[in-house]
Design brief:
The complex is a heterodimer of chains A (161) and B (176). With 161 residues, chain A is an all-alpha fold. Chain A contains six helices and no strands. Chain A has a domain of 29 residues. The longest helix of chain A has 12 residues. Chain A is elongated, with a radius of gyration of 43 Å. Chain B has 176 residues and is an all-alpha fold. Chain B has a single domain, classed as Hypothetical protein af1432 (Orthogonal Bundle). In chain B, helix 3 crosses helix 8. The relative contact order of chain B is 0.18. The chains are: A mainly alpha (161), B mainly alpha (176). At the A-B interface, helix 5 and helix 6 of A face helix 1, helix 2, helix 3, helix 4 and helix 6 of B.
C-alpha cells in the first residue's frame, strides 16, 4: 500500500520578527517621571480639499462642549456633588453629611399606606384594649363587687355559652 | 366565670372605630374640652368591653333578641363599667361606658357616645339586617331622647361622608 509522505514545511520566523519590531512601542523610551509634556502627533496630510479648512470651520462654529458628567456622588445624594473632605495629617477625615442621606427617603412620596397611616391614629385607644391576662385580672377584681358578681352568676346560670 | 375572649376580637371590628370617629366628630362640633374628648374617645373604644361576659349565642344571634335575651345583653354596660374601673380608668370614662344605653344619663359624653353608637349600629350592614340610610337613622334618633343641641350637631356631622367625618374627628382625636 502506498503511503503519501507529507514533508514538513520549514517556515522561517525572521520576517514576522521584523514586522513586530517595526510596530512595537519602545516602552523603555517612556519615562513616567518625566516632566516634559508629550509632543503632539504630527498632523496628517489632508487627502481631500473637502477637509482642508476643517479647523477654520471649527473656529467659526466650534463644536459645543459637552456638559461635564455628574460626579459619582450624584448617584447617592440627589445630584449634589460630594465635597472632598479636607484632611489634616494625623486627623480622621469627616465625611460630608450628605453621604448619609438617602435621597429616596428624602422625597416625600405619598403612598396609599402613608395616607392610610395619616388617617388611622397611631396610638388608638382601640389598640389599648387589654390582653387576655390583664382583662382576666380586671374581671376577677371586679367580681369582688356583689352586684357585678350577681349579674355574672345570673348569666352563667342560664347555661348558655 | 366564663370570659368570651372571642367577643373581644368582635368588638374591635368596624363598629368600634366608627363609634370612636362619630363620637369625637360630634364632640368637636359641640365644642367639648380636650379632656372631655379624650375621655369620650376612650369610652367609645371600650364601650362594649362588658360583652366579654355575655354569651356569644346572644351576641351573634341571627335575628331579633327576645325581651329576656335583650335584658341579659344590656347588662354589658354595667359589667363594662366595673371592668373599666378595675382597669384603672377614670370615673367619667367608666360612667360613659355604663350609661351608653341610658337616655336619662346626665353625663354629656355618655349622651354623645350613645348617639354615635346608635347611629353606627343602624347604618352598618349586619347579617340579619340591612343598613339604614342617614335620613332613616336620623328619624330614629329624633325619638331617642336626645337634646336638641345634640340632634342638631348630629344632623350637621353625620350627613357627611365617612372620610369627611374622619377628617373632622381627626382634629380632636387622641388629644394629649
Amino acid at each position: 500500500m502506498a503511503v503519501n509522505k507529507v514533508e514538513p514545511k520549514v517556515v522561517s520566523a525572521e520576517p514576522q520578527r521584523t514586522e513586530a519590531n517595526a510596530t512595537a512601542v519602545n516602552y523603555k523610551s517612556i519615562n513616567p517621571f518625566s516632566k516634559e509634556t508629550p509632543k503632539p502627533a504630527p498632523k496628517k496630510a489632508v487627502s481631500s480639499p473637502l477637509f482642508a479648512n476643517i479647523e477654520d470651520a471649527y473656529g467659526v462654529n466650534p463644536p459645543k462642549a459637552k456638559a461635564p458628567a455628574p460626579s459619582l456622588g450624584g448617584l447617592f445624594n440627589g445630584n449634589k456633588a460630594l465635597k472632598q473632605p479636607t484632611v489634616e495629617v494625623g486627623k480622621v477625615a469627616q465625611l460630608h453629611a450628605d453621604v448619609f442621606e438617602n435621597p429616596i427617603k428624602k422625597k416625600e412620596k405619598l403612598t396609599f399606606g402613608k395616607i392610610l397611616g395619616n388617617l388611622v391614629p397611631k396610638k388608638s385607644p382601640i389598640g389599648a384594649i387589654p390582653n387576655e391576662a390583664d382583662l382576666t385580672a380586671a374581671i376577677e377584681a371586679a367580681y369582688q363587687n356583689p352586684k357585678f358578681r350577681e349579674i355574672v352568676d345570673m348569666i352563667e346560670a342560664q347555661g348558655i355559652s | 366565670m366564663i370570659i368570651n375572649y372571642k367577643n373581644l376580637e368582635t368588638i374591635k371590628k368596624g363598629h368600634i372605630s366608627d363609634t370612636v370617629v362619630f363620637a369625637v366628630a360630634l364632640a368637636n362640633e359641640l365644642g367639648c374640652s380636650e379632656a372631655e374628648k379624650k375621655d369620650l374617645e376612650t369610652a367609645a373604644a371600650f364601650h362594649d368591653i362588658g360583652k366579654v361576659l355575655i354569651p356569644s349565642t346572644y351576641l351573634n344571634k341571627n335575628g331579633a333578641l327576645t325581651p329576656e335575651e335583650r335584658k341579659i345583653v344590656n347588662h354589658h354596660a354595667y359589667l363594662g363599667y366595673e371592668i373599666m374601673k378595675a382597669l384603672g380608668y377614670s370615673v367619667s370614662v367608666a360612667v360613659a361606658v355604663r350609661d351608653h344605653h341610658n337616655p336619662y344619663s346626665t353625663s354629656k359624653i355618655a349622651q354623645i357616645l350613645r348617639m354615635a353608637d346608635i347611629y353606627s349600629a343602624m347604618t352598618e350592614q349586619r347579617p340579619y339586617k340591612t343598613a339604614k340610610s342617614h335620613e332613616e337613622a336620623m328619624s330614629v334618633l329624633k325619638n331617642c331622647h336626645f337634646s336638641q343641641e345634640l340632634l342638631a350637631a348630629g344632623e350637621r356631622i353625620l350627613k357627611l361622608k365617612r372620610a369627611e367625618i374622619t377628617a373632622k374627628a381627626k382634629k380632636g382625636l387622641f388629644a394629649a
